[in-house]
């Protein structure tokens, strides 16, 4: 071991191993002692040195193997090879050592800096082979084999396995074959044994743990057993009630589904529920007939319904993207009119749109009715008026030009009645048409700014003659704002006030009618008032005043015979509503008279 | 001249104008009216024109009248029972001097309106 350390120091401390060209074993021993600074060398070395020069040779071999081991361990194989390469070069001979009179001669000069490639092992082996060759030549192969075996045996008793291995590797091919094999086999066995031991230890450990855990588990299990049995009982009960709940809910759901499907099926219009990708979730018979698809059709890509189906796809996507409902009031397809309504269906939980439903209504019949209604009004307006015009015109001509030829006053009165009735009928026709148009929203309003004073004066002039002819007065009260202007449809505003005025005159037997207007700054409006001294309106009748065919009379059988159609105030109200005005009864008292008003928005600049 | 398809109306208006000492020519439809106007040497002072008539409606007749160099100066009154606002606007737009709804006027009022218009146009 000391030798080992000695050479180790040579190598690790980068000191060249200086060996005299010719030295005795004693010299070598002394040098080693000096280097190691020890008084004596260990026994092992003594044994080796004690024998003949052959032993020295073997020792050298061991040294070489150690040198090789250390050089390769610290510096790598290359260094070692280079070292010996250099040695041979320096020496000028491949024979690096030899025996001379029983003295070992060698020339190694270890120099770390001389480095070469991986011919190391090759050179070392050559070097050793050289040794063996020389030994063999001088002493015969048997001897060297015997010596190597002896050294190996010696080494194996106190060297670690991996170092032995190194030694074995260094020995050139053909030597120590059996030792190599046995070493490898031993190594393998030891490895396996160690592994077996290790795995057994591991298993034991695991087993121990398992046993411990098992014990623990068993005791826990015992404890839990009672609890589990209780729990099982509870679970059984729970399960029963859950089962009941589930079956109840299932029943409810299937009921709901059945109701939904039958509702959808019985809808008088087409119903469709689509997924985002256009897959049909639900449809009804009407829809399937309309698009000519089957109950199991998945997508709306049927050729026949394509025109419509493509539109539906597009609309569905639109609703998916916008999240808003959509109504298409009219769509014309295959000679018929349809109305479409689309709405997104939101998930209750996520509030995301999961589907879009469509309602498609065939409105062709409605369209036909609407159109014939329009036609009816237009024809009624013309066809009713023409004969009425003839009655009115001819009666008035008789009265004007042939009054003198009348056989009696009675006949003249009869003709007058015919004339008046025709006028009243014309008025009814006109009012009826106006009311219908207003109801349908077909009457357009043309709003403008105009002076209210001008309108009131115009109306005053028109109705003054009528009032006088009835023995009544018509007063236009003094007005403080001559320039007060309103924003409204002038003709229709006039129509409303005319109606109020003519009512006032018609329902007044004595006294007269006042008309005036006031400015309401706060409400930004002008209010026109018409006050009469007429018969007044009973409390019970007030709420019917602005209704269709209502007059201030108890029943339709006791209708007033004055010139009225029963539509006047109704039309006035529709007109006022239509242009942002307000017509109302301000006050009324039986036999004292009434006050009506019309509020008109003030003009703005 | 009055162009009107309803004999009741023709008779009534013919009578009132005659009673008021007017010479009045009648035509039962647009074609007849236009033909008579073209052929007569003495053009009428005014034309009363109905709208709803067979063959050609009053508006078409009016348009043709206003295109005709000889006839376009004669004032035309639309005299109809079509009471719609659009119709009356259309009539005025096409060049009628007035749009009267028959049922709203006594025959004598029609005469006085005609008188006023003739006066106004003969002055010009």
- Classification by helices and strands of chain B: alpha/beta
Taking all residues together, what is the mean pLDDT of chain A? 71
Number of helices of chain B: 5
Distance between the termini of chain B: 20 Å
Low-confidence stretches of chain B: none
CATH class categorisation of chain B: Alpha Beta
Number of strands of chain B: 5
Alpha carbon gap, first and last residue of chain A: 122 Å
CATH homologous superfamily (4th level) name of chain B: Response regulator
Compute the number of strand runs of chain A: 14
Q: Encode the helix/strand succession of chain B as letters.
A: EHEHEHEHEH
In DSSP terms (H or I, runs of 4 or more residues), the helix count of chain A works out at 17
Give the oligomeric state of the chains in this entry, treating copies of one chain as homo and distinct chains as hetero.
heterodimer
**3D shape of chain B:** globular
User: How many domains make up the coordinates of chain B?
Assistant: 1
- Beta-strand content of chain A: 15-25%
Largest sheet of chain B: 5 strands, parallel
Describe it.
The complex is a heterodimer of chains A (605) and B (124). Chain A has 605 residues and is α+β, with helices and mostly antiparallel strands. In chain A, helix 13 packs parallel to helix 17 and helix 15 runs antiparallel to helix 17. The longest helix of chain A is centred in the middle third of the chain and has 90 residues. The N terminus of chain A is likely disordered. Chain B has one domain: Response regulator (Rossmann fold, 3-Layer(aba) Sandwich), CATH 3.40.50.2300. In chain B, strand 3, helix 3 and strand 4 form a beta-alpha-beta unit. Chain B has a 5-stranded parallel β-sheet, sandwiched between helices. With 124 residues, chain B is an alpha/beta fold. Chain B is globular, with a radius of gyration of 13 Å. Helices cover 48% and strands 13% of the residues of chain B. At the A-B interface, helix 12 and helix 13 of A face helix 1 of B.
